[in-house]
Amino acid sequence: MNVICFGDSNTYGYDPRSYLGGRYAADSRWVDILAEETGWTVRNLGENGREIPTSVPDFPADTDLLIIMLGTNDLLQGRSPEQAVKRLDRFLSGISLDRSKILVIAPPPMTLGAWVPSQQLIDDSHAFVWLCQALAEHLGICFTDAGKWDIPLAYDGVHFMEQGHRAFAAGLLEELK
Q: Any idea where the SGNH hydrolase-type esterase domain is (predicted)?
């Protein structure tokens, strides 16, 4: 099975203790745990700072599952949940893969921290989850909410801790069953 994970720093495996874009070890990144546990070929297309793109990359036609988790950076850059979900709508609508091969994951809501100084950002991240779910249902795309998986976040209120990556992988594996 060919899987692509397309997302931001939490897909990349960014270690927030590293100031130069460092990553957690492979055994602590959810994408690599997914590959190890399933035996699937899993490509990590996570990128630090990625916002929802305005253009769609050419995902290979032999992709069996495209996992997309985006939106946090859009909110951190000042977009409203409604603006972020409009961008997500345009992005998802431009993907040429069959919709049954796409899984949208709403990122876990942010918490107060070094990158999240206001309750408004937290509220926006909760609102974004519901808007993502409604969009996925409207488009006929599979959806799951990572907020259900009790993901421990780092001091910044945004990035997964190593235990968070393990919890995310466990939640995703259960969802994929």
A: 5-167
